[in-house]
Structure formats: structure tokens, C-alpha cells
Amino acid sequence: MIAESGYNIGYAAKKHLATFDIVEKVPGWLALLSIAAGIGALFIPELEQKFVSATFLVLGVASLFINFYMQDKDKYAKAGDSLTGKFHELRALYQHVKAEPDMADMSAFTTMHDRIQAEALAFGIPKQIFLSDWYAHYKFFWQAQTGWMDEQLQFKFWRDKMPLGLILCLAALLVWAIVAASVFLVSHAPFAICWK
Predict the structure, then answer these.
(1) Residue 50 belongs to what domain range?
(2) What band does 12 get if pLDDT is binned at 50, 70 and 90?
(3) Is 29 exposed, middle or buried (0-12, 13-18, 19+ CB in 10 A)?
(4) 88-92 contacts at long range (C-beta below 8 A, 24 or more positions apart)
(5) pLDDT digits (tens, 9 = 90+) for 141-156
(6) What is the mean pLDDT of the chain?
(7) Are residues 119 and 191 in the same domain?
(8) N or C: which end of the chain has fewer CB within 10 A?
(9) 8 and 104 inside one domain
(10) How many domains does the chain divide into?
(11) Pair 108, 179 in one domain
(12) Is residue 105 located within the same domain as residue 140?
């Protein structure tokens, strides 16, 4: 029960912090990339193509959407920090419970768990930015210490540690690459001349 709450609260903390990071950092990186491409277009003809221009136009519009979150970014940081504090409280509680004998009275620990969980629910912000799930998975499973939860929940790589949306995107990309390669090979193979 504590490990499940730890997962939920810890992941929520990372999701709030992921939204903060995206809002804080991505517009600057997009601006730097756009400026670099604009300068590069002065002497690299490939950067003058319409596709490149359209790509940077889409990135500019994406940056505008990110700016909708700018006024609330500190709320996301504060909520993420508060949830991280509750996550650490749960980890400490888990260690205390784990140290208790099997037949010990757990009612005090149950009360503490319920309090921590109720306090954590008060911090959450439901509206999160696009791709914060993916970034939160990275921040939670690859940056945070989750071993204490893994003892109970036994996280699986594909089931838990990789976002489903990323898996589906990678699968679609693989299918597209196979189809594109097949079409290319069929149209450029020596026997393709016979079919024309």
C-alpha cells in the first residue's frame, strides 16, 4: 500500500516538475535552434527549403502554446516540490514499517499513510503540458531512487518504465520504416524494370 502510494505521489511530483521544466526550458531551446537555422540558411542552401521553414513555423506555434503555461510555471514547481516532500515521507514510513516485526500494530502507520496521501492530493494540478508524461517517466524511473518501491511493485521495463505513448510511436515509426524500405527496394530493384 505504501509503495503504491509512493509510486502515485512520486510520479505526480515528477510530472509537475516535468511540466515546469518544459515550460521553463523548451522555448529557449526552440529560439536558439531557430536562430541557428536562420543563420545557417544564409550559407547552407538546404536550410532554405520550404519544409525546413514550415518545420520552424510549427515549432514557433508550439512555443506559443507552451507560453500559455508560463504564468503558472511556479505553481507547477511548488506542487512538484511539495509532492516530492510527501514522496520522501512515504519512503521513510516504508522503512519504519519494514523494520517492524510481522505481528506489530500498524494502526499508527496506517494513520500516517492516510494523512500523507490526503495532503498529497491537495497539491495536484490536473492540467499538465503535452509530453510531460514521457518526461516524467524518464525523471521518475531513470533519475529518482525507486528501489524501495520496486521491492514491492517489481517494475517491468516495457510495462512500467516506458511510456505507452512512446512505445506506440516507436512501433508506428518501425512499421513506417519497413513499408518505406519495402517500397524503395521494390521500385529500385533490378527486377522492377521488368514490371514497368
Answers:
(1) 2-154
(2) very high
(3) exposed
(4) 89/116, 90/2, 90/5, 90/6, 90/9, 90/10, 90/116, 91/6, 91/148
(5) 998 888 899 988 999 9
(6) 90
(7) no
(8) C
(9) yes
(10) 2
(11) no
(12) yes
Residue 192 has pLDDT above 70, yes or no: no
Please write the tens of the pLDDT for every residue from 167-190: 999 999 999 999 998 888 887 766
- Asked if 67 and 147 sit in the same domain, the reply is yes
DSSP string of 105-159? --HHHHHHHHHHHHHHHTT--S---TTHHHHHHHIIIIIS--HHHHHHH---III
Identify whether residues 87 and 173 lie together within a single domain. no
Measured between alpha carbons, how far is 44 from 53 in angstroms, rounded to an integer? 13
Between CA 79 and CA 124 the distance in angstroms is 6
Angle subtended at Cα 21 by Cα 15 and Cα 27, rounded to the nearest 5 degrees: 135
Do both 141 and 170 map to the same domain?
no
